Amino acid sequence: MTVSEALRTAAHDLAGVSDTPRLDAELLMADALGITRSTLLLNRMRDQVPPSFAALLARRQMHEPVAYITGRQDFWTLTLNVTPAVLIPRSDSETLIEAAVDAIKCRPPQRILDLGTGSGALLLAALAQWPEARGIGIEASDVALAIAQSNADRLGYGERARMQHGNWRHPGWHDALPGPFDLILCNPPYVETTAALAPQVMQHEPHSALFAGDEGLDDYRFLIPALPRLLAPCGIAILEIGASQRLAVSALGSASGFDVDCRQDLAGHDRAVILRQTPPT
């Protein structure tokens, strides 16, 4: 069987598992061949199917995410290594970087903080965007910290990025942070504990990075009151939110003295709350 034929069959087989069955099949085939997807599509469609493809396809049919199967995920301009110890970076989260680029036009940030860095996605994307910046990634999981630091070193940002253990649910968690910061980014857990998630998420991604109480707001209640003491006077904080959480998170921001704005993702859903300290009158 040729690669082209196998991809058609695989896309059909994955139709009940994935919203993007053809793309998933192509990414798995490229991984089996040890090439990029673009090389696969341009030059290798008539090749014979490699023996390892069947096992990769079987894993995807069991709802394992493609990123965990291949160990890689593209985010912003970067390719990050990922494992089941970290949340898979999603294109929705790129909304935070887009919001930061639009909000910071005149004075590029020099010091960046990423709260709950996971794979390092937000911090490393920001460092790629602003070459003069340095940043710190805070993470409660030591395994995730190692992955984030490995990504930073592999991408050449090791001297500009420092990954540091921290848990915002513990008193005094921010005392060891050498602020203030010009830009704070955060994709906290924000899923309600009773939410029904797709099997590839519920069965494979770390629950500690997903769930945040009955309303999905627990972590915002810890984080937002601490942000004023971490931000520089003209700094901004940008937090990812669930599509229905704009009003609740905005209220928490206003209660902590912030001017609040919101940015939508490409699907038109509320995705990033932007917090600026209210100027003194």
Automatic annotation (TrEMBL):
InterPro entries: DNA_methylase_N6_adenine_CS (IPR002052), HemK-like (IPR004556), Methyltranfer_dom (IPR025714), N5-glutamine_MTase (IPR050320), PrmC_N (IPR040758), RF_methyltr_PrmC (IPR019874), SAM-dependent_MTases_sf (IPR029063)
Domain Methyltransferase: 111-203
Binding site residues for S-adenosyl-L-methionine: 116-120, 139, 168, 187
First-tier enzyme category under EC: transferase
Alphabetized PROSITE patterns for the sequence: N6_MTASE
Residues noted as binding substrate in the record, renumbered to the chain: 187-190
Gene3D superfamilies for the chain: DNA helicase RuvA subunit, C-terminal domain, Vaccinia Virus protein VP39
One GO-annotated biological process of the protein: methylation
Reactions accelerated catalytically: L-glutaminyl-[peptide chain release factor] + S-adenosyl-L-methionine = N(5)-methyl-L-glutaminyl-[peptide chain release factor] + S-adenosyl-L-homocysteine + H(+)
Taxonomy, superkingdom: Bacteria
Family of the protein in this entry: Belongs to the protein N5-glutamine methyltransferase family. PrmC subfamily.
PANTHER family (UniProt xref): HEMK METHYLTRANSFERASE (PTHR18895), MTRF1L RELEASE FACTOR GLUTAMINE METHYLTRANSFERASE (PTHR18895:SF74)
Name by which UniProt lists this protein: Release factor glutamine methyltransferase
Annotated organism of origin: Blastomonas aquatica
